[in-house]
Design goal:
By secondary structure, the chain is mainly alpha-helical. It has 15 helices and no strands. It has helices at residues 8-12, 21-51, 56-81, 86-109, 115-139, 149-177, 180-199, 214-227, 231-258, 264-289, 294-314, 321-349, 355-366, 369-384, 386-405. Helix 2 (21-51) packs antiparallel against helix 5, helix 6 (149-177) packs antiparallel against helix 10 and helix 11 (294-314) runs antiparallel to helix 15 (386-405). The longest helix is centred in the N-terminal third of the chain and has 31 residues, at 21-51. The radius of gyration is 20 Å and the shape is globular. The N and C termini lie close together (11 Å).
């Protein structure tokens, strides 16, 4: 594979000129959408545990329901993204999520919310999140020049990191001090802000696509990834990372409250520290990029994930808020470097006509593994307890580290040649 010769730390990440206005509108929409999603995700298990008296296994199945659309719908939606207006799909999907949040508020107001309703509305809202997350990476290359992709991706991840930092902490604080309704009301309002900001974008110009059988489109996208010596190990690593991450997420709230004696506010703080790690990782990305190769930047994510899992496992013997906090910080800081770097590689090596489908496969690996991990966490917690879940997750994080270090990715020094 040939390489273009542009020092990634200077030409790609180090640029300081303003990004296009259209991209900045999308970035604001992304911030509102991510903030809304994180507040709702933080509130849901707290509602389940504190209001509905859910056990660890039940919170695990709740996480499964709320993440199942990532597994079921990422690829069909990715095929749609390659043929329809990406902006229109993002607007419609965010409206769907705002509707699900508003219905949750209504059920809370009527004291009619139960676990099935909480899971069902979370499922519906996640459909909107899936479509938004598949369409956004495919839309970015049409809004910014190729050599500004790293800058654009970094700003999107900074927005996501900010949401991951403040969203859970604010959600946990609202649940603790004002009740669960306020958290869902604010999440719904932010989701509507995301819709209004994104709706101001002009409709993108798309080349006419030939009519083909959906299975042909599906095979084309899958073949491109599986034959690519960079994208293939990235996909496998993402599957193991996210499966293991959601084994932990499935039982974390119940484990923290019942085994570690943490309050809802403490739980929100630790989830906020996860976002803080993401924020710091995104901020230091340009500095690291000037000092290490692109391959090393990518591998730092899996290394950080495995280290964080080991720290979380240690809380079985040394229950400590600070161990949990450090674990969540590493879960945020390292993987955000992975996201920024691998997204830039993906957008560079993938033809525009395939971006939706390729993004869909990556989203399936990244987010579709969530219900699998949540289901594993719920099952293992039911049979063997929360401690066994942490052991299973640590094993998965070890596998993802071995997969990526054995590939060609660590040897990548510069941005690959454009498709």
């Amino acid at each position: 594979m040939s390489l273009i010769h542009c020092p990634i730390g200077i030409s790609v990440i180090g640029s300081v000129s303003p990004l296009p206005v259209a991209f900045r509108r999308m970035a604001w929409s992304n911030l509102f959408a991510q903030f809304s999603e994180q507040m709702a995700l933080a509130a849901a298990p707290l509602v389940a545990v504190l209001l509905l008296a859910a056990a660890p296994s039940e919170t695990g199945w709740l996480q499964t329901a709320q993440t199942l659309p990532f597994l079921l719908l990422s690829i069909p939606l990715g095929m749609a993204v390659d043929r329809a207006s990406r902006r229109a799909l993002m607007v419609g999907s965010e409206l769907l999520r705002a509707l699900s949040l508003s219905m949750t508020v209504g059920l809370l107001a009527m004291s009619a919310l139960n676990l099935p309703w909480l899971a069902g509305l979370g499922f519906v809202g996640a459909i909107g999140t899936v479509c938004y997350n598949v369409a956004a990476p495919a839309l970015v290359p049409s809004l910014v020049p190729r050599l500004r992709l790293a800058d654009a991706n970094r700003w999107l991840e900074l927005a996501r990191s900010t949401a991951y930092t403040a969203g859970p902490a604010l959600g946990g604080a609202l649940v603790s001090y004002t009740g669960v309704t306020a958290a869902y009301v604010l999440a719904a309002v932010l989701s509507l802000f995301a819709v209004m900001t994104l709706a101001g974008l002009s409709k993108e110009q798309r080349a006419e696509q030939p009519k083909r059988h959906p299975l042909h489109d599906l095979k084309e996208g899958a073949s491109f990834i599986l034959r690519h010596d960079l994208l293939r190990p990235m996909l496998v690593t993402a599957v193991f990372f996210n499966t293991s991450w959601f084994v932990i997420q499935a039982i974390y709230v119940a484990y923290a409250v019942r085994n570690l004696g943490m309050s809802p506010a403490d739980v929100g703080i630790t989830l906020g520290i996860y976002g803080g790690g993401m924020l710091i990782g995104a901020l230091i990305a340009p500095v690291l990029a000037r000092r290490v190769s692109l391959g090393v930047m990518i591998v730092l994510g899996p290394i950080s994930g495995f280290s964080a899992a080991v720290l979380m496992l240690l809380t079985l013997w040394w229950p400590s808020f600070w161990l949990v906090a450090l674990s969540f910080f590493l879960f945020g800081a390292g993987p955000i470097l992975w996201v920024i770097s691998t997204m830039m590689v993906r957008q560079t090596v993938t033809p525009n006509a395939l971006l939706g489908r390729v993004s869909a496969f990556i989203v399936t690996a990244t987010f579709g593994a969530r219900p699998l991990g949540a289901a594993i966490g719920a099952t293992v917690a039911t049979q063997f307890g929360a401690g066994s879940c942490l052991m299973v997750a640590t094993g998965g994080f070890l596998i993802q580290l071995l997969v990526i270090t054995a590939s060609h990715v660590p040897k990548l020094r510069e941005l690959p040649e454009a498709a």
